[in-house]
Amino acid sequence: MMKSWINILKGTILSVLVFFSVSFLFVLYRISPITSGDTYHLEIGFPFIYYKQFQLQGNPFLNSSWHVTYLLIDCLITWVIVCGLYLLAKKKN
User: Fold this and answer.
1) In 3D, which of 42, 37, 83, 26 has the Cα closest to residue 60?
2) pLDDT tens-digit profile of 38-83?
């Protein structure tokens, strides 16, 4: 019984690391430098976009918005996939 909880905890830690890695890679892919005359926008999230940062034309300030529901859904999807694969791999051993 205790061993299964430890495996779920390890899978959860692994899913957190995978979620952070995917989010970081998505930011690196989507980031663009601010240039004069162009508007700036950044979107983070896979498969759902949970954070947006954008600049309106002629406005020097950045606007941002969070969609916490999409963040939680992305976390849950990552947890289910990574924990499922981790527990499946542990079960085969």
Assistant:
1) 37
2) 667 788 888 899 999 888 877 778 889 999 999 999 999 999 999 9
Q: Are 67 and 93 in contact (CB under 8 A)?
A: no
Which of 47, 80, 51, 83 is closest to 65 using CA atoms?
Answer: 51
CA-based nearest residue to 21, from 33, 9, 31, 29: 29
Q: Is the dihedral of CA 67, 69, 74, 75 positive or negative?
A: positive
**Coil, strand, or helix at residue 53?**
strand
* Residues contacting 23, CB < 8 A, separation 6+: 44, 45, 46
